[in-house]
Amino acid sequence: MEFFDFGTIFFLIAAVVIFFQLRNVLGRRTGNERPPFDPYTAARNKPQDANGKPENVVSLPQRKRVAGEPAEDAYVAIDAFAKPGTDLNKGLRAIKDADASFEPKVFVEGAKMAYEMIVMAYADGDRKTLKNLLSREVFDGFVAAIADREGRSEKIQSSFVGIDKADIVSAEMKGGEAHVTLRIVSELISATRDKAGEVIDGDPETVAEVKDVWTFARDTRSRDPNWKLVATEEED
């Protein structure tokens, strides 16, 4: 029978100690974890190569701009989105001037994601999710409605089918705050049940068309990139 000599045993113990130390270090939070998901800016994230540049993109030399001079192509995406000279185009341009990263198409995609999250969070009574997506005034209104529903032991059974249309109908700057209003047409299966489980509103078997006019806002002077729902209106 062979036996380990003293040197072999020493290196074996050292390897075990190093393994546990590495595991402890790798398991710790460093403060560099990914931030919370932001539905309004997620669409801007593109795959990058090893050098940190977007894949399949050729960088061209650009003329240096004088401080305060708008970029020549700053409004190209906005002019393609809304007819130049219209109030909507002017409002979107004003937001672009205040926030160079603003892109209307990207915003709409993010707003659609936020719409679904808010609708389902309201149905589920998920106050935590709502708090991150709503202004103080709208949040208080939603929470009051949820509390009233819970007080009657009622529950909403809801399934989100999808969004048929989401169009920006107005945009403007109010001081340093950008406001964008969308008309959203969605399909939803929803029914409210009472304490006994009986349906008292809606239909759990029927897809209903819902038309909403929602306004989102963001303080462009803040480093916080998140937009919040500041006004809701249901269209007849």
Task: Give descriptors for this structure.
alpha+beta, 25% strand, 35% helix, transmembrane, UCP031890_Tim44-rel, 6 helices, single chain, 236 residues, elongated, 5-stranded antiparallel beta sheet
Global Rg: 26 Å
Run of helices and strands: HHHHHHEEEEE
Structural class by SSE content: alpha+beta
Chain-averaged pLDDT = 81
Q: Tally the helices: what do you get?
A: 6
Assembly state here? single chain
Task: Give the N-to-C terminal Cα separation.
Answer: 89 Å
Report helical residue fraction: 25-40%
Name the poorly predicted regions.
Answer: 19-35, 53-69
Strand content: 25-35%
Label the overall shape: elongated
How many E-type strands?
5
Largest sheet: 5 strands, antiparallel
Pfam families: Tim44 (PF04280)
Subcellular location: Membrane
Main location: membrane
Family: Belongs to the Tim44 family.
